[in-house]
């Protein structure tokens, strides 16, 4: 591993740690600061895709939960070269929807594409997904009961 790769790995893992911190703190501004202006996002919630940094959308989404939000990025693998990097991980989101007494925990897959902008790594592509049961008798439902 070269010094550049080591530095990129360290810097990118700092971005992941900041993402965890900002999610737990409901800090939409800090979350938004981790993204490029031209972010492409395939998030868990509709729509199928969105483009651009949307701090107000993040703030509105975070407000759909009562109480604490848990967010962990696990098993992150970082591949970086020059000004482009990819990260894949298994993430855990736990929260209680507003107006509900029932918290949930969801493990999901995450793939990030990052781009070095100046001296910072920023997330340019954010893709979160859950597998689904491919058996028609299950109604092709999302497999939200899976854990690592």
Automatic annotation (TrEMBL):
It comes from the Bacteria. Residues 12-132 form the SnoaL-like domain. InterPro entries: NTF2-like_dom_sf, SnoaL-like. This is DUF4440 domain-containing protein.
